[in-house]
Design goal:
By secondary structure, this protein is of the alpha/beta class. It contains eleven helices and eight strands. Helix 1 (13-23) crosses helix 9 (210-227). The protein starts with 12 loop residues before the first helix and ends in a 12-residue tail after the last helix. The model has no long low-confidence stretch (mean pLDDT 94).
Amino acid sequence: MLTDLSKIPTYDTLGVQERVERFQKRSIKKSSKTEGLRKILSMIDLTTLEGKDTRGKVEQLCYKAMHPHDALPELPTVAAICVYPSMVGVAKNALKGSSIHVASVATAFPSGQSSLKVKLDDTRFAVNEGADEVDMVISRGKFLSGDYNFVFDEIAAVKEACGKAHLKVILETGELETLDNVRKASEIAIQSGADFIKTSTGKIQPAATLPVTYVMLDTIKDHYLKTGKMIGMKPAGGISTSKLALNYLVMLNEVLGEKWMNKNYFRFGASSLANDVLMQLVKSETGFYQSANYFSKD
């Protein structure tokens, strides 16, 4: 049952922005930066979510996931490959023998504009194909019209349909209008069974931002202090540079602490980010930047 949402904190937008700016000014030493870049690589959900996706493209992405850069074989692999349900079987087969998870978007991604039956069928299909994780979208129209119980019940039903697969709940924060709405949607997602809360589909702008991620991390922290249960976080969309990803890691560490600094509780939803991280790691190892031509285009 959804608990009273009237007592949740409210946010001053300017205050949150000032807090976020402080995270961006932290000085990071070279050794810590290299460690951070390796951690970022291990937290990436390498993603392809296009209508033109093919078996070959997904298989190539899976190869890259397992072999980020052959010149540096000691690098960690990414956390997961994220694809449409129709490509889950392809990814599962291509990743056989690795520890990389297969994540599937579902529930009429990215709009969420479909019936509950269709959303549950979508989820069950992905899980039956082998998905380890399901990324669902909430019904933003229902949320913005104040029908919070509908949103809660829908997430809870999808969570049940996931079985043993982990559920990431996408809020699509760019459509939620205010930070207070981001907090409220985060609360609903957590209460209804989310294993992770996720900012965005990556299909609209703005996608992930530091301020909305801060609010979502703050929600996770308060839930942990009340219940002792750790919930994961996934900013997705628009995080394409190592510098920005390091800002997110600094914020994660300062808001939630070391226990969340791993792929079990924090992910980046990205594709181009991986190449930038690899370029920075090669520079750290050799002293020289490699051309972008040395890295696959995803």
